[in-house]
Design a protein that fits this description.
Helix content: 25-40%
CATH topology of the largest domain: Rossmann fold
Distance between the termini: 54 Å
Number of strands: 15
Strand content: 25-35%
Oligomer: single chain
Radius of gyration: 21 Å
CATH architecture of the largest domain: 3-Layer(aba) Sandwich
Number of helices: 11
CATH superfamily of the largest domain: HAD superfamily/HAD-like
Structural class: alpha/beta
């Protein structure tokens, strides 16, 4: 195996030092679950192991807590708190789902990403349990998709379902250190579009794929729930160094997620939803060329000129200079509109479904 990148070596040494100091001061491990997904044959259970001095209090603030429990505490919450975390490396963990039980360890950043087979569960929503010797057991939601399902939705998050109205380089810093999670803006009609499409395909999966950090998962989950977006797993990334470099590639992360979902659900044709502010049209278009049998349609939310300026500095889409190749000619329809209502009308047409006015939803 190739030697890890210097960035990973430095980060691992720092984490080990922090781990030793905090444990010496009495900190304990806490398990955090993230919504997982799967089918009747397998399940992917996601989570993280962190160090905390208040495990009982912190456990109530994870994404599985109810809105009523969170409302008063989260109204004034600032995003920076989510990033002040201490990952617990190489902690033994046991994941149980249905009839299956898997023993594993947290990775170098404390993450748990386990593939569970033989769970014996039917399609629908279920709960997995994550256990560790030095932590309170936690439960994590897992949605299982039926093998007969042929339709699914994959959605980007930033500028697709959430508008930040900030220059792209400042979004992470502003949302992390300043803004309350309640101060973000919803993109009109997108939640309605997702709910309407899923109502026409009962049991279809809804998956959110973003280049955002896993630290924001709880915040994003609450935002999506508060604004009526369908529940579904969030596939985020770790912003830290990797074994190959100082920074992860957001585009590579999205491409890998698309191909993994296509392989895990071979019967599903996906509607891919993104925006034209950055790289979604190219990523989705390339994927449609490579896997045309896995793409039902591409839906691109068009940013306003002011949003384009904030996204990359010019008032037009980057496609004006690097045009997206004509996917329609390859059998993959592309829909474009400024909000979810316009996209929904177009998707009804290309999917052969009856149109309906859902602006009151």
């Amino acid at each position: 195996m190739a030697r890890p990148h210097a960035a990973a070596i430095v980060e691992d040494a720092w984490h080990r030092r922090v781990d030793a100091v905090l444990r010496a001061r009495g900190w304990r491990t806490r398990l955090v679950g993230h919504t997982g997904y799967g089918s009747e044959d397998f399940a992917r259970v996601l989570g993280r192991v962190l160090l905390t001095r208040r495990p009982d209090v912190d456990a109530r603030e994870d994404a599985s807590a109810s809105a009523a429990e969170l409302r008063s505490a989260q109204d004034e919450r600032r995003g920076w708190r989510a990033f002040i975390t201490a990952p617990a490396m190489d902690v033994p963990v046991t994941v149980t789902l249905g009839d299956a039980r898997v023993d594993t360890h947290s990775d170098r950043s404390g993450y748990i990403d386990v593939r569970v087979k033989g769970h014996g569960l039917a399609p629908g929503w279920h709960e997995a349990t994550i256990e560790s010797p030095d932590a309170e057991q936690t439960r994590v939601a897992v949605v299982l998709v039926g093998t007969e399902q042929t339709f699914g939705l994959i959605s980007d998050i930033d500028d697709t379902v959430i508008s930040t109205y900030l220059p792209r380089p400042m979004i992470a810093a502003w949302n992390t250190f300043v803004k309350s999670e309640n101060a973000r803006h919803v993109v009109p009609g997108m939640a309605t579009m997702y709910r309407t499409l899923l109502d026409g395909h009962p049991g279809a999966p809804m998956v959110y794929v973003s280049t955002g950090a896993w630290n924001t998962a709880a915040t994003l989950t609450r935002f999506l729930r508060r604004h009526g977006y369908p529940a579904g797993p969030l596939l985020l990334t770790d912003w830290g160094p990797t074994n190959t470099g100082w920074f992860r590639s957001g585009q590579d992360h999205k491409r890998a997620c698309l191909h993994r979902l296509a392989n895990e659900f071979p019967s599903i044709r996906w509607v891919l939803v993104g925006d034209d502010g950055q790289h979604d049209p190219k990523i989705y278009g390339d994927f449609a060329e490579q896997r045309p049998d896995r793409v039902e349609a591409i839906a691109i939310r068009e940013l306003t000129p002011s949003e384009q300026v904030l996204s990359h500095g010019i008032p037009v889409s980057l496609e004006e200079f690097a045009p997206m190749r004509d996917r329609q000619g390859k059998g993959v329809p592309v829909c474009r509109a400024g909000d979810g209502y316009g996209l929904l009308r177009q998707l009804h047409a290309v999917l052969g479904e009856p149109a309906q006015d859902s602006r009151d939803a």
